[in-house]
Amino acid sequence: MPKLTARERDKALTSLKGWVYDETADAISHEFKFKDFSEAFAFLTRVALLAQAAEHHPEWSNVYNKVSITLTTHDAHGVTEKDTALAGEIDKLLT
């Protein structure tokens, strides 16, 4: 899958909620905050199921009620449609 151009990436980001571009990592990321650890962990579980179905796995961390997710396509050395599509599916979990 080809890496998105800057223009394509920026356009995709406009339709995503709270995702930002990290130039250093050539990735998109988002930090989510929940009521407590249980809510954060439940969210991680739902994201894991999405990621497995998409065969695209995020870099993430969880500290108590915060979940940080970073998406990049390592084979393409940057952000691809796989990343923006998975970010969109993650957004849907919170609506």
Distance between the termini: 28 Å
CATH architecture: 2-Layer Sandwich
> Assembly type of the shown chains?
single chain
User: Spans of 5+ residues with little confidence (pLDDT < 50)?
Assistant: none
CATH class: Alpha Beta
What is the N-to-C order of secondary-structure elements (H for helix, E for strand)?
HEEHEEH
Radius of gyration: 13 Å
Number of helices: 3
What is the tally of beta strands?
4
Sheet with most strands: strand arrangement: 1-2-4-3
Spatial shape? globular
Q: Tell me the fraction of residues in β-strands, as a range.
A: 15-25%
Briefly note the CATH topology name: Gyrase A, domain 2
Helix/strand/pairing category = alpha+beta
CATH fourth-tier homologous superfamily: Transcriptional coactivator/pterin dehydratase
List strands and helices in order, with pairings.
Blueprint: H1 6-14, E1 20-22, E2 27-33, H2 37-54, E3 59-63, E4 66-71, H3 81-93
